[in-house]
UniProtKB/TrEMBL annotation:
Histidine kinase domain mapped to chain residues: 276-486
Gene3D superfamilies linked: 1.10.287.130, 6.10.340.10, Histidine kinase-like ATPase, C-terminal domain (3.30.565.10)
GO cellular component, one term: plasma membrane
Stretches assigned to the HAMP domain: 215-268
GO terms for MF: phosphorelay sensor kinase activity
InterPro entries: HAMP_dom (IPR003660), HATPase_C_sf (IPR036890), HATPase_dom (IPR003594), His_kinase_dom (IPR005467), HisK_dim/P_dom (IPR003661), HisK_dim/P_sf (IPR036097), Sig_transdc_His_kin-like_C (IPR004358), TCS_sensor_his_kinase (IPR050428)
TM stretches of this protein: 20-38, 194-214
Protein name, as recorded: histidine kinase
PROSITE patterns given in the database record: HAMP, HIS_KIN
Reaction(s) this enzyme catalyzes, per UniProt: ATP + protein L-histidine = ADP + protein N-phospho-L-histidine
Keyword check for Kinase: yes
Keyword field: Kinase, Membrane, Phosphoprotein, Transferase, Transmembrane, Transmembrane helix, Two-component regulatory system
Organism of derivation: Streptomyces bingchenggensis (strain BCW-1)
CDD domains associated with the record: HATPase, HisKA
């Protein structure tokens, strides 16, 4: 049966540990690259020094041979001087002793005449012999090394020098100097060990510095976390301390404070909305309850048709308020309205003008339009928006309500103008708040919920439009602007 427990991750969860590991990994890659470059550069320079040392030794040997002097065996660089027609080496030293070149020369004798000043560098394998001593400190036997060589002709030397060297008068001399890589390799190995130790120490220090630097940098974040953990939706009054450093933590703290402020405002608005809704619901419920209690207490003296009329009116008011609250709840949760259609606002305004009941007071409701005005949206939502504007105008108009619909550039502009007392300039935005009814209008409000204009503006915004109160000398004029849609014939 397979285990269902959580899988373990090798990657640490802590931001501090992750940063330290990432910094150490990046530093390791850089140090490896630097170490590789230093390794090869040190080896290259060591080999170059060895070649220069071997070349100096070669020309020193040539000078001694030209003087008729047999070089001494003590030398820092292995060398051998061989001559044609001679079995043993003329001279040798620097580690060639263990190969016993005195019996038979190790390196090949010249087979043809060479220019005395010609320098040759080529790899040569040092032959291994049966009686070789494996304790040779350079381990020359059996190895392949770069060898520098040059030739000297005996006929260029005097007879005394030829005799001193022990070679024939027509012999050809070849001077060999072995380029030893041991020094370069030893220096490179020593450098590699130092680089390895320094690299390990550097990685530990870099990881430690990164860990503690991030730890210090995250202290304000931890303080913000602790404080925001105490914030609740019912009491979002806490604010985090904004550091004065101006770095990313400052931006984070500012953003969190802004979010908390929005949460605080939303909570306050929600509390006010609930209180206003309770107040609006209590008024019709109180009237309805009082009417029914009086009717039940004195049934023989109750005008039951009037009591039923009062109960029906208050019930309708409760029903309208409940519908408005449900619609606002949908708008607040951004619940999508039905699929967009193309709506002719001119036809809609004309239809509502003809069908709107004006039974309570003698009012004149007219619609002025010149052409069809199409906009994308939901027909029911547009009808609710326009009906709310007409209801608001009907409650405050004195004699007349004028609706106009126009096409202006890429917009459809619809206005609802009444000849009532108007709205003070300072309250031009306040009237769109929920449950707001101006004091002058309260005495004339016949059943309004105080939500009509708020719903109308929300519906306008949901259709990418605007709803504003435009200044007028007489009455109030609400202007609705919506993006114009192409007519069905143009599609």
């Amino acid at each position: 049966m397979n285990a269902t427990g959580p899988r373990r991750r090798w990657w640490p969860r802590s931001v501090r540990a992750r940063t330290a590991l990432a910094a150490a990994s990046a530093a390791a890659v850089i140090l490896v690259g630097i170490g590789w470059w230093v390794h090869h550069d040190v080896y290259r320079q060591g080999t170059q020094i060895a070649e220069e040392q071997a070349q100096m030794q070669l020309w020193s040997l040539v000078d001694q041979l030209n003087e008729g002097v047999v070089p001494v065996r003590r030398s820092a660089v292995p060398y051998e001087v061989v001559a044609s027609g001679r079995r043993s080496a003329v001279a040798y030293g620097g580690g060639m002793d263990d190969l016993d070149p005195g019996t038979r020369h190790v390196l090949p004798a010249p087979s043809e005449a060479k220019e005395s000043a010609l320098l040759t560098i080529r790899p040569i394998r040092i032959p291994a012999r049966r009686d070789d001593n494996p304790r040779d400190r350079f381990e020359l036997a059996g190895g392949t090394y770069l060898v520098m060589s040059t030739d000297i002709s005996a006929d260029e030397l005097s007879s005394d020098k030829v005799a001193a060297l022990g070679i024939a008068a027509d012999a050809k001399l070849r001077v060999y100097v072995v380029v030893l890589p041991h020094t370069a390799e030893a220096i490179t190995k020593t450098t590699d060990r130092l680089l390895l130790r320094a690299g390990l120490v550097s990685l530990v220090l870099i990881a430690a510095v990164a860990y503690f630097a991030v730890r210090i940098a995250l202290r304000p974040v931890e303080a913000i976390r602790v404080l925001t953990a105490s914030v609740t939706a019912s009491d979002p009054r806490e604010r985090v301390t904004v550091p004065a450093t101006g770095h990313e933590i400052t931006a984070l703290a500012t953003t969190i404070n802004t979010t908390l402020q929005r949460l605080d405002n939303a909570a306050a608005e929600q509390r006010r909305f609930v209180a206003d809704a309770a107040h609006e619901l209590r008024s019709p419920l109180t009237t309805l309850l009082a009417s029914l209690e009086v009717a039940l207490a004195y049934p023989e003296r109750t005008d039951w048709p009037a009591a039923a009329t009062t109960a029906a009116r208050q019930t309708r008011r409760l029903h309208a308020l409940a519908e408005d609250l449900l619609l606002l709840a949908r708008l607040d949760t951004r619940t999508p309205i039905a699929g967009p259609e193309t709506v002719d606002l001119t036809a809609l305004a004309s239809r509502l003008t003809e069908q709107y009941p004006l039974t309570e007071r003698p009012l004149t409701l007219t619609c002025d339009s010149t052409a069809p005005a199409h906009a994308h949206g939901n027909p029911d939502a547009y009808e609710r928006l326009l009906r709310n504007l007409i209801d608001n105008a009907a409650r405050h108009a004195t004699h007349r309500i004028q609706i106009t619909v126009r096409n202006q550039d890429a917009w459809v502009v619809l206005t609802v103008h009444d000849d009532g007392p108007g709205v003070p300039t300072e309250d031009a935005e306040r009237i769109f708040e929920r449950f707001v009814r101006l004091d002058d209008a309260r005495s004339r409000d016949h059943g309004g919920t105080g939500l009509g204009l708020a719903i109308a503006r929300d519906l306008a915004h949901r259709h990418k439009g605007t709803l504003t109160l435009t200044p007028r000398t007489l009455g109030a004029c609400f202007q609705l602007r919506l993006p114009q849609a192409p007519t069905p014939a143009e599609k």
